[in-house]
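ingest -> fold -> write
write: protein_1
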Amino acid sequence: MKKILFFLIITTLVSCSGLKSSMIGTFTDTRDGKTYRWVKLKDQIWMAQNLNYETQGALESYGAKRKDIGKLYKDHVIQNIAPAGWHIPTDAEWQILEKAAGMTEEEVNRVPFRGSIEADLLEGGCTQLNIPFTGNLSNRSPGGTLWEFVNFWTSTPYKQTYIQRSFRTDDNRIGRVMPNTSRACFVRCIKNDTTTLDLTVEKIFFREKQQK
């Protein structure tokens, strides 16, 4: 039993060698009273749940098996849907997160899929961003394998729409997608500043000095 416990502890430490959260907590969207989890990652504070604000143009995820994954939004409504004190992250702010999690400078500027840090951002990952595969977008490859995607908006314009971030089940890279047409995507917001005075803090991990 002791040997098994020791092995499990070592496995956990190795799997969490990347970017880790330094603080976690909750905040309430004053518009509708909904509460969201947040996580502080180095000098950024991210929502740890998808936005679930009901507004004109908000869509349900038709493939979702869960009810806690938030709404999909078309690009024409995203500029005015962030809670007060928060905003939709730019492409550059996503890149800051990706580099902090281990993506190289060369990789972070590539398109479409790059890096190998997807697992750290997904549910159960070290960052505690807990990005879920929602099943909102799916295709079948020629071989019949089901590929599930989850896409997020950035606020950085591209052609007639905005750059996106894409995660998929068959790849451990993160997509930096520059679409030709509009689609409905999920939203993760980032706080306008790095203060936590107006947030509910649940846990402090004291890891910031250890992060590179």
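write: protein_2
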Amino acid sequence: MTKILYLDCFSGVSGDMLLGACLDAGVPLADVRAALGSLGLDDYAIASERVLRAGVSATRWVLEERVPAGSVPSQEITHAHHAGEDGDRGGAHAQGQQHPHRHLPAIEKLIARSALAPASRDRAIALFRRLAAIEAEVHQMPLDRIHLHEVGALDSIIDIVGGVFALEWFGADRIVCSPLNLGSGMVRCAHGTFPVPAPATARLAQGVPVYQDGPAVELTTPTGALLVTGFADAFGPLPAMRVDAIGYGAGSRDFADRPNVLRILVGRAEAEAGREAPAPGAPSRERVTLLTFEIDDMNPQIYGFLIDMLLKAGALDVYYTAVQMKKSRPGTLVTVMAPPDRRAALSAILFRETTTLGVRYHDEEREVLDREIVPVTTPWGAVPIKVARLGGVVTNAAPEFEACAVLARTHDVPVKDIQAAAMKAWLDMPGAAARRA
């Protein structure tokens, strides 16, 4: 089963919105508390609350910082958010903050000594290193001297480490993200006022689809951009999936004309979730996507390589058909059959490895027989037999050719002899006659 998380960033994304959405979709707050508690920080408290955003019920992630005696409350503590998608509770770009901004080595030590799973620690550290490298590039400073102004504050450390834990809690096989709504207008940063997106956000979002829509505020923050670009396997529309859970994470502002939320959809690949249990005597049904294009200007040596690449990337089948194209040129129709959730990845391979300028696609349903692999033994070695059944009755059985070919080359015998011996071994198995009844 392929489990999918879809991050719908129609109102941008920030660290607290992401955590709120994860909680709303099922991540236990107690588990997040335990994970963050292992960082050894004691100057904060976390909670969640139900709020409305343009009439939509959502979960708001709440971080309360404990101010040392005699210090001036920061904007994060008083929740006086600046214009922007919360700027991670106003902290990412707020001025006059009184709590410290940590250097990269200090943040790495916090994470390394935590009780997070090793993979989670490695990912969190990698995210901070990526951010530090971007800050170093923007400010032309050595990496070890970079002060993480944008996400070096306590609230953002909590959001990033908590976000890593929450996203990995789902155990998703794929995470897909919508194009990022960055917002517009101007935003205050540690080094001045900049147009949205702020410098760090712009670099973090480089190479992914973005747009600007809605109120003139910052909708996607550095923390949000760091997390989604660090986790997403692909960016685009909602993939074909059966939705099992939905979570809404609230931003601090409540816009009048749109819900200021991040939506997470949790589900399974549609082709798997939608597979029907076979009725007696009937084959199963599943949805597949066909990708097609014609080509007449590609080196024929590439075609074999292309098939291998596509099959390794999840294609169910690939085949070529001779066609006559414009200007009377002979060409090739390329057809790729795949699970719907692999369309984007396979299209990327087609554009990268071939000379085509466009790929068509459409979904179809197919009926499939139940299949299993039954190993048999021949005088030259083991051969897997692919057995197909309809309503429990065997309709076809055939040895896997590649396995037969390997044995034929190894023992210098005709491949047809290997095939025949494999089929005889299968037919001689106890109950073979009954299986074919």
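write: annotation protein_2
The two ends are 32 Å apart (CA to CA).
The mean pLDDT is 84.
pipeline exit 0
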